[in-house]
């Protein structure tokens, strides 16, 4: 059975950045494209970065059991489509899910064999700086994401692996090591 890697941690910690490097270093890995009801940011494409769904369509898919997990985050809905995951694992590809903590917990219950990795910021100040520096969220979104981050950080010990994203190259190396080790164990 192909491995499933859950990568979680607060918004702005660097999950997307780390995963981009991880996919370059471990090319057999595939990223599951999530669904969301939030609107696309500049440069984000439907079906590539997310499946952008309106709330009614998202709810319809929830009712149809189309999601492996789904959660509300900062006033929007996000979820992993079963089809996205199954298509890849059935083809033998190890898969990465980049999801928030509530979703990671649901995956832990549904798929205890999935490898769970929590990305930790060096400090909450650094997290704030990264969120603001990314420039994709307005002041209200930054505040809401930082508020959620407090409870997400409190959950970090639930996760099998923790990687501190201080220096990027070191964090990528650590992530690659974990993924390669777990792929051998699969
Ligand atoms: P997430 O996907 O967790 O929300 P991003 O990958 O979008 O986070 O990263 C948030 C911001 O922090 C981006 O501007 C990114 O370039 C920056 N960043 C990520 N990792 C590091 C790092 N190790 N050092 C400095 N900046 C980083
Ligand atoms: P963003 O709006 O910054 O793209 O994502 C906000 C949060 O939603 C991030 O913590 C991200 O990891 C999470 N997220 C993205 N896709 C999913 C998903 O499919 N399920 C869950 N539960 N969270 C997701």
Give a structural overview:
This protein starts with a strand and ends with a helix. It is built from seven helices and nine strands; from the N terminus they run βαβββαββαβαβααβα. The chain has a five-stranded parallel beta sheet, with helices on both faces. By secondary structure, it is an alpha/beta fold. It binds adenosine-5'-diphosphate and guanosine-5'-monophosphate. Guanosine-5'-monophosphate binds at residues 11, 15, 34, 38, 69, 71, 73, 78-80, 98-100, 102-103.
How is the topology of this model organized?
Elements: E1 4-8, H1 15-25, E2 30-31, E3 35-36, E4 51-52, H2 55-63, E5 67-73, E6 76-81, H3 82-90, E7 95-98, H4 101-110, E8 115-120, H5 124-134, H6 139-154, E9 161-164, H7 168-185
Parallel strand pairs: 1-7, 1-8, 2-7, 3-4, 8-9
Antiparallel strand pairs: 3-6, 5-6
Helix pairs in contact: 1-7
Adenosine-5'-diphosphate binds next to α1, α5 and α7.
Essential attributes:
globular; binds guanosine-5'-monophosphate; four-stranded mixed β-sheet; alpha/beta; 186 residues; five-stranded parallel β-sheet; single chain
Strand segment count? 9
The stretches of 5 or more residues where confidence is low (pLDDT under 50) are none
Structural class, from secondary structure content?
alpha/beta
> What would you report as the Rg, rounded to the nearest angstrom?
16 Å
Strand content: 15-25%
Question: For the largest beta sheet, what order do the strands appear in spatially?
Answer: 2-7-1-8-9
Shape: globular
Q: Helix tally?
A: 7
> Which ions and ligands are bound to the chains?
adenosine-5'-diphosphate, guanosine-5'-monophosphate
How far do the termini sit from each other? 7 Å
Q: Describe the biggest sheet? A: 5 strands, parallel
Question: What's the average pLDDT?
Answer: 96
| Topology pattern, helix = H, strand = E | EHEEEHEEHEHEHHEH
Residue share in helices?
Answer: 40-55%
């Amino acid at each position: 059975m192909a491995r499933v890697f859950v990568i979680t941690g607060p918004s702005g910690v660097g999950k997307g950045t780390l995963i981009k490097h991880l996919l370059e270093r471990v090319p057999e890995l595939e990223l599951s494209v999530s669904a969301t009801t939030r609107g696309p940011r500049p440069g984000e494409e439907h079906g590539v970065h997310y499946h952008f769904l309106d709330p009614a369509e998202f709810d319809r898919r929830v009712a149809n059991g189309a999601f492996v997990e789904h959660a509300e985050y900062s006033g929007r809905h996000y979820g992993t489509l079963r089809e996205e995951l199954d298509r890849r694992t059935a083809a033998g590809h190890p898969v990465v899910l980049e999801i928030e903590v509530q979703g990671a917990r649901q995956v832990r219950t549904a798929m205890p064999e999935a490898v769970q990795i929590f990305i930790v910021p060096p400090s909450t100040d650094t997290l704030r700086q990264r969120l603001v520096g990314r420039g994709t969220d307005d002041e209200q979104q930054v505040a809401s994401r930082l508020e959620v981050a407090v409870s997400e950080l409190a959950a970090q010990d639930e996760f099998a692996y923790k990687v501190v994203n201080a220096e990027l190259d070191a964090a990528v190396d650590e992530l690659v090591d974990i993924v390669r080790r777990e792929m051998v164990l699969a």
